[in-house]
Queue: 2 jobs
Job 1
Amino acid sequence: MSEKLQVAVAGIGRMGMRHARHFANFTPRAELIAVCSPVQAELDAAKAEFGNIRLYKDYEQMLEQEKTLQAVVVASATTVHAEQAIKAIERGFHVLCEKPISTSPEISQSVVDAYNTSIKKFPNQKVICGFSRRFDASYRDAYRRTANGDIGTPSVFRSQTCDKLDPSGFFVAYAEFSGGIFVDCSIHDIDLALWFFGEDSKVKSVTAIGITAVQPDLRKHNDRDNALGIIEFYGGKIAQLYCSRMMAAGQEDCTEIFGTNGKVAVNTQPQLNLVNIYEPTGIRREIPPDYYGRFREAFITEANEFTASCLDNTAPPLRLDSAVRAVTIGCALQESLISGKKIEFEENGKRVEASKL
Amino acid sequence: MSEKLQVAVAGIGRMGMRHARHFANFTPRAELIAVCSPVQAELDAAKAEFGNIRLYKDYEQMLEQEKTLQAVVVASATTVHAEQAIKAIERGFHVLCEKPISTSPEISQSVVDAYNTSIKKFPNQKVICGFSRRFDASYRDAYRRTANGDIGTPSVFRSQTCDKLDPSGFFVAYAEFSGGIFVDCSIHDIDLALWFFGEDSKVKSVTAIGITAVQPDLRKHNDRDNALGIIEFYGGKIAQLYCSRMMAAGQEDCTEIFGTNGKVAVNTQPQLNLVNIYEPTGIRREIPPDYYGRFREAFITEANEFTASCLDNTAPPLRLDSAVRAVTIGCALQESLISGKKIEFEENGKRVEASKL
Amino acid sequence: MSEKLQVAVAGIGRMGMRHARHFANFTPRAELIAVCSPVQAELDAAKAEFGNIRLYKDYEQMLEQEKTLQAVVVASATTVHAEQAIKAIERGFHVLCEKPISTSPEISQSVVDAYNTSIKKFPNQKVICGFSRRFDASYRDAYRRTANGDIGTPSVFRSQTCDKLDPSGFFVAYAEFSGGIFVDCSIHDIDLALWFFGEDSKVKSVTAIGITAVQPDLRKHNDRDNALGIIEFYGGKIAQLYCSRMMAAGQEDCTEIFGTNGKVAVNTQPQLNLVNIYEPTGIRREIPPDYYGRFREAFITEANEFTASCLDNTAPPLRLDSAVRAVTIGCALQESLISGKKIEFEENGKRVEASKL
Amino acid sequence: MSEKLQVAVAGIGRMGMRHARHFANFTPRAELIAVCSPVQAELDAAKAEFGNIRLYKDYEQMLEQEKTLQAVVVASATTVHAEQAIKAIERGFHVLCEKPISTSPEISQSVVDAYNTSIKKFPNQKVICGFSRRFDASYRDAYRRTANGDIGTPSVFRSQTCDKLDPSGFFVAYAEFSGGIFVDCSIHDIDLALWFFGEDSKVKSVTAIGITAVQPDLRKHNDRDNALGIIEFYGGKIAQLYCSRMMAAGQEDCTEIFGTNGKVAVNTQPQLNLVNIYEPTGIRREIPPDYYGRFREAFITEANEFTASCLDNTAPPLRLDSAVRAVTIGCALQESLISGKKIEFEENGKRVEASKL
C-alpha cells in the first residue's frame, strides 16, 4: 500500500481542478489517482494536465472501482455536495467537502449525522468542510493573537466578503442555486465569527437589509447584490457583515475583531503583491481579482493538513458541525434580508416564534 | 463698524475654549470679543489666554450688553444648546451651534423653527450646526469625487465613530445627558450618510444591537459601549454604523462609500502623522487619541467658512435642517438598541406603528 | 507699542506671499505691516489681499521708514537673501531668512558674521534661516524619538527631496541661480542629517553622481535633474541623498534614520490626505504636488515660533550657523556631481587637497 | 527513463535543505534522488525528511554513481560553488548554483567559460545562478511594467538589502568568507539593477562608504555592517545601494525604479502578512525575519522554472553571465568601501588606472 494518501476529486470544474492541482502538485504526501465529472471536456482537460489518473463519469462507479482510494474531495455543484459526501462517508472514505455542505441547514445536518454514524464503524475517518480562511496564514495569526488574549475579550466582529463586479450576469444565474448572498459569501465571515468568538457561540438574533444596485434581476431569485447583516450572540458579542457583488477594484475581503484591550485586522488594506506604482494620477496598487487570488495558499495548506490528519490519524483541522451552524445563521440572515423581519433565537437554538416577538 | 466678524463664545469648557481659539487666532476675518460661562475658573482661563475680551457669567446679559456682537458660538452643555441658540436667533445673531442641537428631535426642530421665523426679520442671518466632518479636507475630497460621479451611484455606506477607551468611568457619567452612543457618536456618521446619499434621503428602517463590554454601568442610563446599526433608505441605499467607547489605540473614525463603479474610503488606515517606527516588535505608527486630534483643522475651516458666510452674506456651508434629520435617525437607532425592535418609517417620515409591523 | 510683533516681508513672489499670509492670518502674535517688492503687480496683489499694509519698491526705504518695524522676513530671490538679511541685521531687526541664505558658503558665513557682530549691540536679536522641515510635526516626532534614544545611536541617514516633473522648462531657467540641485533641494536633507546626527557633526567626505534624464539643457548650468550623493561624517555616521526634478506623482520627500536599535521613517508612504480611491485599476491615492502642499503647516509653525522667540526673547528655534554648514556640504556635493571627484575634509573642516588624495 | 527531472542537491545546510524541499515537495516535475554533504548529521536529517534518497559524503562520487542524475543544485559553502559547478558542468549535468558563483569575478568567469565550452558538447545543457528575486512575483510585476514602458525610461535605481540584527556575532565569522557585505547582500540589488537597466549595462564608476555601528570586529575581515554605494552606468543611468546587518524589525529589502514617466516600488512597506494589530501603543505589523521569509515562494518558482527549462529544453530563466557582471560590481564596491577610493571603468569594462584618475 502506498505511503501517500490516495485521493480522488469529484467535480472538476474551476474549483475542482484547483483542488486536483493542490493535491497532485503541492501536497507531497498525497497522490491524485482519479477524478470524476459528467462533462467529457472536463475529463479530457484533467487527463491532459495530470496524465496518469483514472477518469469517471459516474461518481459511485469511481467509489466502487478505485480499490486504493482513501480520500474524496467533493468539489461538484453545491446541490450534490451532501449526497456525494454521504456516499463517500458511508463507504468509510475520508472526505473534504467544498463549502457549503448544502444551502439547507437540515441537509447539512444530515451529513453530520451520517459522519457521526459512520465514525463508529470507521473510527479513523476524517470529514471536513473546506472553510479556506481557517487555513490562511493571516487569519491564523489573528486567531493565535486573539486566543492568546492579546486583544482581551473579543467582543465585536466585522467582516465582509465582497466580490468584484461581474457585468456578465453570471451572478444572476448563479443565484438560483447559491442559497443567496449571505449563504454564498457571508458563510465565510460567519464561520470566522464562530471561530473567533468560540465554536459554541449561540446566536440570539439576526437582522439583514439589502439592495440590488447593479443586478436588479437578482430579485427573481430572492437575492440581492449588496446586503448588510447584524448578529447578536448570547454572552455579549455582536457581529456585522457586509456582502457584495459590486466591487470595482477586485475582491475585498476583510475582517476586524475588536476586543476589550485591542483589535486585530485582517486585510483591511488589500493588495495583489508588494508593488506600488507611482504615476501622474497618484500612487496605485492592484488587488486580487477574486477569492482564489487571495486564498490560493490557504487552499494548499488545507489540502496538506487534511492529508496529514488522514495519514497520521490526528484531529482534523476543523470541526464538521461548525459548518451546520454557519449555514443556519446564513440562511436566517438571508430570510431576514427578504422578509424584512428580525429573527430571534432562544439560547437552545430554537427560533422564537413571530407571535412572541 | 469693524470689518471683522464680532464673535462671542457661550460655554468655554474644553470644546468651547477650542472654538474660542479658532476664532481668536486662526480666523483672520473674525474677532473674539466676549465669552460666557457660569464657571469663574473658566472665565479666568479665557482671560489669561485671550486678554482683551469681556467675560460674562450670564448668557442673556452678554447678548444684551455686547453692542457690536454679530455671531454667537454655542458650545455649552448639550442640554442648553437649543435654548441658547434660540435666544441668539431671536435677537438676530448669526449662530454656530455645536452638535447636537439637542438630543431630542422635537427640540432640535424648535431651533429650526425659530430660525425659519427669524430669517424673515433678519434675512441675512446664518445659523448652522457644527458637523465638523463636513469641513474636513479628506471628507470633502471624497464628497467631491462622489458628487462628480467617480464611483457611480453611491449605494452602500459604512462608517464608524469609535472612541479610545477611557477607563476613568467618564463615559458612564456622560451617558446621563449624551442621548446615548448613537446620538453622541454616530450622529456624525448619520450626517455623512445624508450628505453622501443626498440631504433629502428618506429613512425606511433602522435596527441596532449593542453590548457593554467594558462599562456595564452604562446600562443604568440605557446606553451601551459598543453598538452596531443598519439603516435602510428609500431609493435603494443602505448604511451600516459602528460606534464604540473601547478602542485601544486611539480614535478610530472611518467611512467608506461604495458606489456602483467604485469606492472612496476615508481614514481606513488611521495615523497620527507621517512617522513609522521600526523596532524589534515590528513597524508601528500612532493614531490620534481623540476626535480633536483628528479634526482640528476641520474645526478651523468651519470657523473660517461660517465667518465668511456671515460677512459676505453667502450661503452657509451646510443646512440647519439636516441636523434634525440626523438626530431623528440617531434617536431611532438608540431606541432600537434598547428595545431590540426594528423601527420602520413611511416615506413621509412617519413611523410605522408597531401593530402594523 | 503694540503687543504684536510688527513684521515686514521682503519679496512677495509665490513664497513671499505665503509668508505674508502666515504672519498676517495664522500667527496671532504677529502683525504684517509692510511688504516690499520691485514688481508693482506683486505690490498690488498684496494690497488687495492684506488691505491695511504699507508697500515699498525699495527695501532700504522700508527699513528706514517703518518706525514700528521689529522683524523682517527675507523671501526675495536667493541672490539677494544675504544682502537684505545683513541690512536688516545691522539695523537690529529680527530676521527670518528663507533658505538658502546664499548658494555660497562664504556669503552665508558673512551673514552669520554680521549677526555675531550685531548681537553684541542688540542682545535680544533673533536671526534664523527657514529650514521648514525642522518645524514639521512628523520630523519633530521622529527627532524626539531619536533624541530620546528610542532607536539607539543614529548611524545611517537616507533622505530625498524629489520634485514633481515640470515639463515647462522652469527648472532649466531656475538652475542658473539655484546653486544646483544639491544646494536647492538637498539642502533640506543635509540640514536634517545635521539635526539628527548632531549639529556639530563633521563631514569627512562627499561623493555625488547624476544624470539629465528629462532636462538635458540643465547641463548648460552645470546642473542635473537626478543626482545621488553619499556623505561620510567623522564618528561613524553615513548618509545617502537623492534629489530629483522628475517625479510623476508629485512631491516625494522622505527620510529614514537608522539607529543601532531601530529606525524612524518619515513620509515613506506619501499621501495628499486620508482618502483612498477604489476603481477598476486598483486602489489609488494622490500625493502633494509640491513642497508647500507637504509643508504648509510647518511654515505656519515656523512663523509662530519665530514670533514667540522675538517677543519673549527666548532661544530661536534653530541655530543660524547650521545653515552655513548645510550649504557648505551642498556645494561640495554639487562640485563632486560635476567634477566626478570624491571630496574629502579634515576633521577641522579644511578640504584635503587633491594632491593628497 | 523517468519523466521527472532527476535532481541531486550538493550541500544540505540550511539553504541546501530548503532547495531539497522545494524540489522534493513543491516541484511536481522534479524528483529528488540524492544529496551530498561532508557532515553526517546533515545526511541523517535529509534521510529522515526525504526517505527514499541516496546519500553521499563525496560530491564526485555522487556525480559518478547516480546514473539517472540529470541536474545538480549546488548549495554548498560559497567557497566551493565554482569548483562543484564546473565538475557538474563538465559532465553535462544541468546546474542550478546558489549565488554567488564565487566572491571572485575571475573564478565566476571560469564557470561561465566552462559552460561555454561544455554547451558545445551538451547543447541542451542549462546552467543558472540562483538570483531568487528574479523569480519573485512582485519583482516580476515591477519588471513587466518597466519593460512595457509604463514608467518611461528607467533612469534611477534604489535598492537595499538589510538583514535583521543578529547579536550572536554570526556575521563576524561569516565575513571571513562572504566576500564582504556588498558581495553577500548587495549582489541581489546589483543583479536587479542590471535586469531593470538592461543586462548589458556598462558600469562607469562605483563609490562606497561604510561603518561598523554594531559589529566593530567586522573590520578584522575588511568588512562593515552598514554600507552605502553609488553606481554610474554608461548611458545616463545611476543606482544607489544600502546594505546592512543592523535592522531591528526584520529583513528590510526594497527596491525603487524611477523612470522618466513614473516609478515602481517593491516592498517599500514591508509586512509579514495581512494582519494589523491595534494596541495602546498604536498600530503595529510584523515583517519577515529573514530573506527566506520574504522570498520562499520565489525559490519555489525558481526550482519549477529551472526544471521546466531542463525538461523542455527551453531558454533558462536568466543568463549565467549576468552573475559575473554582478559580482564584478559587488567586488568593486567592496574595494571602494575599504580603500575609500572611487573606482572607474572604461566602457569596455577595463578599470581606469588610478594614475589616470
Note: The mean pLDDT of chain B is 96.
Job 2
Amino acid sequence: MAADSNSEYTLDSVRKALERQEDTIIFNLIDRAKFPLNSHTYEQHYATIASILNFLFRNTEAIQAKAGRYKSPEENPFFPEYLPKSVVPDYPFSKILHPGAASVNINKSIWALYFQQLLPLLVASGDDGNYAQTAAADLSLLQAISRRIHYGKFVAEAKFRESPKDYEPLICAQDKEGLMKLLTSERVEEMVKKRVEKKAMVFGQSVSLERDDDDKTNYKVNPSLVYRLYDKWVIPLTKEVEVQYLLRRLD
Amino acid sequence: MAADSNSEYTLDSVRKALERQEDTIIFNLIDRAKFPLNSHTYEQHYATIASILNFLFRNTEAIQAKAGRYKSPEENPFFPEYLPKSVVPDYPFSKILHPGAASVNINKSIWALYFQQLLPLLVASGDDGNYAQTAAADLSLLQAISRRIHYGKFVAEAKFRESPKDYEPLICAQDKEGLMKLLTSERVEEMVKKRVEKKAMVFGQSVSLERDDDDKTNYKVNPSLVYRLYDKWVIPLTKEVEVQYLLRRLD
C-alpha cells in the first residue's frame, strides 16, 4: 500500500496493508517455484560476472534507486552501498515515522534466510537454463518479503501511538525483551499464519472451468511452507524490525 | 514453462504451458493494479531522464539480456536495438522452432495496446509517488503478456506438425487468411477466455479465514477486463504470431 498523504496509519489500516502484501508474496512464491533451483544462477564465475544473481540484483536495484524507489519510506535496499542517487523530484510521502527508521534495515538477515533456508524448500531441483528469469523472480520475491518485514516500522509506530504510556518506560530502559513481549499478540499472529496458508491454497490451486473440478490438492506452492515462512521468519523478523524501531523512537 | 530439452512440444503440452502462464499474467495484473495510474512514470522529462518508464524498462532489459534472458527461444525483447550480448554460457535449449522464429517479434504492437488501451482500464486514477515500483510492475506484466503471445510460435509449430498436409499449401501460397482460418478454434478460444475470467475471480478475491466469508464480489482486477484482454488482444495477437511464424515455416 502506498504511503498516501491522506491515509491514516492506524493499527487497523497498517494491518490491512500487511494483508494485501500477503497476496503479493504468495504470487511471487508461485512465480519463483515455476523454475527449478537453477543453481548456475548462484554460482560464482559461471558467467564472466561474479554471479548471475548478484549481477542482476545489484544492477536492477541501482536502476530502481535512480528511478526513485528508495525515496519511499516503505522500501529498503539490499545493497545500500551501491546505490546511485535518485533523479526523480521529491514526492511528499507522509512523514509518519520517527527519523530513526532510516537506520533500520535487516535485509542482510532476510537475504541469508532466503537463500540458505527458504529457497531449497520452495523449488524443485533441476536446471532449465532460465537463469536471468530465475534471478529476476528471486529479486521480486525478496523485495516483497523485505517490504512486508520492514513494514514493521509502521506497525510499531501505530502500536506506540495507541499506548505510548506502556511503551515509553521500556524504551527509556532500552528493554528489548520487554518491548518484544508488549508488542506480541499470539492471537493475531496465529490468525495471520492460518490466513496465508489458506491464501496459498486459493492462489496456488489449478483452476479449471468446470465448477467443483478445480484441483485443490496439487498446489503450486506447499501451503504448509507458506505457514512456516510466516511462522519462522516473516513474523519474527517483522517483530525484530518493530523492536529496533521502538528502541530509537524517543531519540 | 521452460524449454526443457526433455519436454515434448505437443499441442497438449503447449496448451498446458499457456494455461500456467495465465496465472502469471493475472498475478501481475493484480500487482500493477495495486498502484494508481501514477502518470509521472510515463512523462517525458519529469525526471532528468527521458521518462521513468523508459529509463527503467530499457536498462532492466539490458541487464537481463547480459544475464542471458533472450537466449531462451521463449523470450523476446521490447528494445532489441539496445541489448548488450549475454555473458552466460550457452544452454542447450531444445531446437523445436524453425530458425525463422527469431525474426517474429510483435512487441511494438503489445507495447502500444498496453499503454494506450489496457492500462487506463486496469488502474485507478491518482498518484501515490511510487513511480519506480509502478514501472517495474509494468515491466513484469508486459514481459508476461509478451511471453504468452510469442508462445504462439510453439503453438503454430505444434499445429503444423499435427497436420502438415493442411498447412503446406497455404504456406506455399503465403495465404494469411487461409492460415488464420485453419489455426482458429473458436471453441478453444472461448474456453480460454472463460477460464481466465474465472481465474481473475479466484486470484483477485479477498481471502479471509472464515469459511464462506471470502469476498467474492470486490475483485482486485475486474474479471470482465481479463476476459476482454484475452478476447481483444492476447488471443488475436497470439494468432498473429502464429501466422507470421507459419509464413516462414518452409523457408
Note: Confidence is low (pLDDT under 50) at residues 1-6 of chain A.
